[in-house]
Amino acid sequence: MEEEKLKVFDEDRTPIGVATRSEIHKKGLWHETFHCWIVSEHESQSYLYLQIRSSLKKDYPNLLDITAAGHLLAHEEATDGVREMEEEIGIYVELDELIYLGVLQYEMNNGNLVDKEFAHTYLYKRNLNLKEFQLQEEEVSGIVTTRLEDFYALWQGTKQLIEVNGFEVNESGDRVEIHRMVGRGSFAPHPISYYNRLIQVLKENL
To answer: Number of folded domains in the chain?
Structure first.
């Protein structure tokens, strides 16, 4: 199967060509992604939905991450990224239901992978039952929620651990309830600057 090709940019977000996904991460080339964070309201409290990355993922398996996210292919625009919602977590969304939070620019380097992203970031406000999520098993193994204020506190350094509740799909394909305390180390390692900017734009739009 031919490898995905993505648009490549300079650091000012000017397009400069096309490259394969593996080449982009090997050389640390700037590229575009789609991020969507789902937030619900329950009894005057806001909750954030997080995905658990599949154990099959090459990068950051089993860690908590953005509700739904993915790379934008060479022929796609930022708005085309909404397909990730249905593909990864089985939630169909119309683009006009999303709130655009802007482009969050950041870099990650774990030694084996250099990830330089222009992340087109969206907010989706909707009360969802966990039963509504249908997961793409090779990408996502579970969904949990946490109090939004606790998520803020974790990344602003006022809490070391926060509670998450939800489900994970086990090896037999069954959904198992999970209730656990997690710290920053349980999350995919986006830089703290990304989380600080994310918190800012979420607060501006909620």
So the answer is: 1
Q: pTM (2 decimals)? A: 0.93
Single-letter residue type at 194: Y
Residue 51's domain comprises: 5-205
Summarised one tens digit per residue, pLDDT across range 26-38 is: 889 999 999 999 9
- Which tokens belong to 176? 């198992």
In degrees and rounded to multiples of 5, residue 22 shows phi and psi of: -65, -40
- In whole angstroms, give the CA distance from residue 136 to residue 142: 10
Give tens-digit pLDDT for 118-175.
Answer: 999 999 999 999 999 999 999 999 999 999 999 999 999 999 999 999 999 998 889 9
DSSP classification of residue 134: -
Note whether 36 and 124 are within 8 A (CB): yes
Q: Is 24 left (phi over 0), alpha (psi -120 to 50) or beta?
A: alpha
The enclosing domain of 65 has a CATH number of: 3.90.79.10
